TrEMBL record:
Binds 1 heme c group covalently per subunit. Keywords: Electron transport, Heme, Iron, Metal-binding, Transport. This is Cytochrome C. It comes from the Bacteria. The lineage of its organism: Bacteria, Bacillati, Bacillota, Bacilli, Bacillales. The keyword Electron transport applies. Heme c binds at C56, C59, H60, M95. GO terms for cellular component: membrane. GO terms for molecular function: electron transfer activity; heme binding; iron ion binding. Pfam families: Cytochrome_CBB3. It comes from Paenibacillus odorifer. Residues 43-118 form the Cytochrome c domain. SUPFAM superfamilies: Cytochrome c. InterPro entries: Cyt_c-like_dom (IPR009056), Cyt_c-like_dom_sf (IPR036909), Cyt_c_BACSU-c550-type (IPR012218), Cytochrome_c550/c551-like (IPR051811).
């Protein structure tokens, strides 16, 4: 009786392992999730400023001087547009992710705008 139970458990564990191998994301998929791809956009400074005023000044200040969040006045000297896009999309530390609140093109426009602030 115990042999049947042990054989059944072994078979179930093997079947579960096979299912996991085909359903878990691969390294490429995880890397893609961790580093979102920034869409190509034309910089529109007026729209970027409007987006920043609507979404960022609560934490980063009305002049981007900092407050709850860090200063963004010289953000382009610290990060390029792709890095800024990734930070805004995924969030970092206390900063929440904005991928559900802003369109990728809006985030890319803000990232380009902030990357010019050096």
């Amino acid at each position: 009786m115990q042999k049947w139970i042990m054989s059944g458990l072994f078979f179930a564990a093997c079947a579960f392992a096979v299912v996991l191998m085909f359903t878990l994301p691969g390294k490429e998929e995880v890397a893609e999730e961790n580093k979102p791809t920034m869409p190509v956009v034309q910089l529109d400074a007026a729209k970027a400023e409007a987006t920043v005023k609507a979404s960022c000044i609560t934490c980063h200040g009305d002049q981007l001087q900092g407050g709850v969040g860090p200063s963004l006045q010289n953000e382009g000297g610290q990060h390029d547009a792709e890095e800024i896009y990734s930070i805004v999309t995924k969030g970092r530390g206390q900063m929440p992710s904005f991928k559900e609140k802003l369109a990728p093109e809006e985030i890319a426009n803000v990232a380009l705008w902030l990357s010019e602030k050096k």
